[in-house]
């Protein structure tokens, strides 16, 4: 579903803020409110993801990164899981026809625009951090309009297919109400 996302010039202040947001600081051990919340969320999400990421340790590390980076960016972690499902099908080394890379299908121009030389978009944490930062930027740009932000993220602004697919994955596959299912 990759669109033709294009480079959009950023104001220097916006570029600086985004650059700071993707700087490589290791995450703390948890972004959860409590250990019980962490165990419950990881258990629920892990079961849903086990056919896509087989190795348990890799799956838990991936989910912890998604939860931390999404929370850090002010995003719903389940929304990010829905976006990853649609963007890459949970394939770490996915590369789109347009050249987007990794789980969140981040375009390489973002590294030049807001990152550092050597940032590897196939690194799980780095890819998720970039993706969450970019989606947060588009949500802010679109004043909270998720459909338009997702359209910008995918390069399909104005076409409803992609935002609807992400929303469907988010609400039907990844919804989490705090209860184990």
Describe the model.
With 181 residues, the chain is mainly α. The protein has a single domain (32-172), classed as Lysozyme. It is built from eight helices and no strands.
Supply the key terms.
8 helices, 0% strand, Lysozyme, mainly alpha
Task: Summarize the entry for a quick read.
With 181 residues, the chain is mainly alpha-helical. The protein has helices at residues 12-22, 35-49, 56-72, 77-88, 109-114, 124-141, 146-154, 161-172.
Mean pLDDT: 88
Per DSSP E runs of 2 or more residues, the count of β-strands stands at 0
> Whole-number radius of gyration?
15 Å
- Give the uncertain stretches in residue-range form: none
Strand percentage lies at: under 5%
Class based on secondary structure composition and strand pairing: mainly alpha
| CATH top level class name | Mainly Alpha
Biggest pleated sheet: none
Provide the domain count. 1
Measure the end-to-end span: 30 Å
Known CATH architecture? Orthogonal Bundle
CATH topology: Lysozyme
What series of H and E elements makes up the topology? HHHHHHHH
Q: Count of helical segments?
A: 8
Overall helicity:
55-70%
Coarse morphology: globular
